[in-house]
Amino acid sequence: MSALLEVRHLSVSVRRGGERFHAVEDVSFDIEAGSAFGIVGESGSGKSLTLRAIMALLPAGARVESGSVLLDGVTLDPKSRSARAQRRARVAMVFQDPLSALNPVRRIGDQVAEVPRRVLGRSRAASRQRSIELLGLVGIPEPARRADAYPHELSGGMRQRVAIAMALASEPTILLCDEPTTALDVTVQAQVLDLIDKLRVELDLAVVFVSHDLGVVRELCGTVAVMYAGRLVEVGSTAALLPAPRHPYTLGLLRAVVDLDDPIGVLRPIGGTLPDPLHLPSGCAFHPRCPLASEECRASVPPLTRVDTTGGASPRLSACFHADQVEAP
Amino acid sequence: MSETVIPSSATSALEVRSISVTFPISPRRRFTAVEDVSLDLTTGESLGLVGESGCGKTTVARCMVGLQRPQSGSITVDGVEVGSRRSPAERRAVQLIFQDPYSSLNPRMTIGAMLVQLLEAHDLAHGAAAEQRCRELLELVGLPGDSLTRHPGAFSGGQRQRIAIARALAVEPHVIVADEPVSALDVSIQATILELFADLRDRLGISLVMISHNLAAVRQVCDRVAVMYLGKIVEVGETQQVFDDPRHPYTRALLNAVPHVRRDPPPHRLRLEGEPPSPLSRPSGCSFHPRCPRAEERCVVAEPALMPVTGLPARLSACHFRDETFLAAPMLRTSKENQ
A237 CB contacts (<8 Å, ≥6 apart)? Predict the structure, then answer.
């Protein structure tokens, strides 16, 4: 049986200056309907490019080098316009900055109605009706009245709700979220996370949530994948992974985050800096910053392999030769 | 207007007294970004200023360093009230560090040229002495000495923020105001910059004002914290005490909204509904009342003053119910009931 969405050995290259480098390397994962999958990583880790490859919406200069993204077991022909259009009807995306995702000179109701009208071919009145319905679904108060508002008349949280309503207009089965709460205040972030979780349950949506914030992913996602320098370094259920990481980078990231209930004066940053993607270190890209690094780590890239012994339904994967030596956070 | 003044001590590095800032939005209308804010910073102390976007915390910071002139109220640096035009010495005394180290450094100047220019302009050091001072500054912020000949483009975000800190330290300030100094940085290096601030505070005895929406970061670095909502301070106190026992419902809501990484979120989480109202249409009474689960009729009518909380030394709260503890408070709706 195949999953709703399967990402298989995906590699994406990006051109920078005259050189081309792999920004996403051999990334594989499955996502089931109604589940939430979090991808955590720092800037340049390749998490956003992975999302865009799923959506067939790679920026100029980026291309899929190898691997595939299967939706309901069907792969995407990147050269076919209609295949791309079909993919984008099933998969929707929400971006970090809702203001740049919305047209500033059109009323929000008209923007949300555009997909029902033009893509689904509904009548003008039915599209308008559907638009108001969607605005209500995402928690816009008095949707029939607010549909006539322009984006600048709304607050940041309301704009992100409108962007989510637009994403839902094509009745997608998968919602890709690229740091949708990073630009929002914490109290509003909490509301938007609650909304995404509600939509996942009510509409049986598969949610892929990309973030640099482990806390946000913890609130929302059942499964989490950690990316570093273009590769997945650890995958597992959120409940099992966060208390007991099996990759030193995950551990470092968990320790580096300052929590509200941490003891004072015990900051534990990861030493070193993120590697330059054009000059990745040999072997495991994390080895220059890793306290467990050995000769083996400098010589070869550790494969992402199963490290749990329970044989449960949600396997724990780690790309570390020393996965069994990783301490508790 | 209440005349509550935060207790001041003799060794005050920076005092902000009842400042208000308004901005024109049309020829006839102005909106109030900051209203009657008083803060006091003793030498060597660190103060966190927290609140959501639009609450006026950056405007307060700009007033502190003299980039913004308050319409009323006064600012005192090292015991001397500063006028509308600050003297060079007064300008040097309070330095600002910006959020984004990518846009706050001149990409065409080497780090050395930038620092030497600054030292010479303020007549602090010249020639070889200036170069020696640059190397000291770099060492202070944890950068290698050969950084002086390089341009900002050669550095990562965390290193750039260190350069920005070195630039602020170059003029030997008494107070550093840091506006969201780690928000633009990657998670794995945020802690290194927070460590640097804590270290500078301890080693140089510099007073620090850190503006942040990251409450956990403020808790690590700041002795005291002030919470702002819609242009006003709603709670002030010793950081750990405020976080352990908030006496304003907004403070509690802010704390509850922070996602936890290594622990389950606390029970009875208070989820706020709605967003901060526009400062153009400030609600009557307590401006937090439309979002407040504890609000009663009096909150709609009467604005609570920022006043001491009974039994808690050096704690001020602008809530009618400041003497109640909001911690286990069953009268607050929890996240489950909100849905």
Answer: A222, A223, A224, A314, A316
